[in-house]
Amino acid sequence: MFTGIVEELGEVVAVDNLGDAAPATAGGAPGRSARFRLRGPLVTEDAKHGDSIAVNGVCLTVVDTADGEFTADVMAETLNRSSLGALAAGSRVNLERPMALGGRLGGHLVQGHVDGTGTIVDRTPAEHWEIVKIALPAALSRYVVEKGSITVDGVSLTVVEAGDDFFTISLIPTTLALTTLGIKKAGDPVNLEVDVLAKYVERLLGRGSGDLRDLDELKEMDR
User: Fold this and answer.
1) Cα–Cα distances in Å, from 18 out to 22, 35, 124?
2) Which pLDDT tens digit goes with each residue over 156-212?
3) Is residue 70 part of a domain?
4) How many CB atoms lie within 10 A of CB 80?
5) Same domain for 197 and 126
6) Residues of 197-214 as b/e, b for ≥16 C-beta within 10 angstroms?
7) Can you say how many angstroms the Cα of residue 86 is from the centroid of all Cα atoms in its chain?
8) Which helix (H) or strand (E) holds 207?
9) I need a labelling partner for 65 at 20 to 30 A (CA). Which of 16, 109, 140, 146 fits?
């Protein structure tokens, strides 16, 4: 579990495409996988094999570490769901270690399980902040509400405006300087993770309605 408070702006050192050895996806196309080598001296100072590190909001498992770098394997599902497949050597990435039990929850509860990708539509700079408009898939828009939380490339942010197919965020100078959101431009993809609580509420309410409907049907049958 993460908080969406980026600890370090890291860098992709190398990406090894492991080919189409993975099983075919649901759509019938063969999956692909890759091994990433990333530089992040801060997040690797206490990392070991099997630990988790969020890379642009995607929870990855550390394979090994050395000299301030770590490697992680990325499967087809992750490459298909996120923007990690577009990364190359030299790409900057947001890095965060998992929240320690008893630590401060500075952002919001973030799983590191990306729901999909959005696209930066435009940026409107101001004197002390910048407004960024991001298009998102229709299937995710129902989970995004004004003043609610959303994770963009691993950064916990507050929604300013929520539309049917977009939302806006306001970025302070610290976020612009210390995360990839300061260098992203219009047309660039970003990883999105909506508030997991919204998804659970939707699921529970849906099941609750179904249970009540089934109960009513049983009562009718008994009459």
Assistant:
1) 9, 7, 40
2) 999 999 999 999 999 999 999 999 999 999 999 999 999 888 888 888 888 544 444
3) yes
4) 16
5) yes
6) ebeeeeeeeeeeeeeeee
7) 15
8) helix 196-222
9) 109
